[in-house]
Specification:
By secondary structure, this protein is mainly alpha-helical. The chain has five helices and no strands. 77% of the residues lie in helices and 0% in strands.
């Protein structure tokens, strides 16, 4: 179970580090296509979300890897659960159904990591 949790943590961390970077400095191609929602978020809030995603991505790996404050890892996962609830709510009125499904998948994975690190295999 520990190996499964580590794999999910690494995948989530990579995903949120990448997306957080996109939120901080969106490429020109983000104005059209699948990532047009990025430009619909007010700039200050978009930067806040980007920083939170990057910090959560780091928090999924670094505390557990170093053994310094490892209880931060499940808290980072809980933060991502909250963030994904907000993301799904944001995409619902925009009728961006693929994004909603993806948010719910990420939410479930982050919830599994939180449960796994709080209950199943705590550090």
């Amino acid at each position: 179970m520990n190996t499964v949790l580590w794999i999910i943590q690494i995948l989530l961390a990579l995903m949120f580090l990448f997306h957080g970077r996109m939120m901080l400095s969106p490429p020109a191609s983000a104005q059209q296509g699948m990532m047009a929602y990025i430009m619909a978020i007010p700039e200050g809030f978009r930067r806040f979300i980007g920083v939170m995603e990057i910090l959560a991505g780091i928090g999924l790996i670094l505390p557990a890897l170093t053994g310094v404050l490892p209880w931060l890892t499940p808290l980072a996962a809980v933060g991502l659960v909250i963030l994904m609830i907000g993301a799904a709510i944001f995409h619902i009125p925009r009728k961006e159904y693929p994004n909603i499904v993806f948010n719910l998948i990420l939410l479930a994975l982050a919830a599994f990591v939180a449960y796994g690190r709080f209950v199943l295999v705590p550090f």
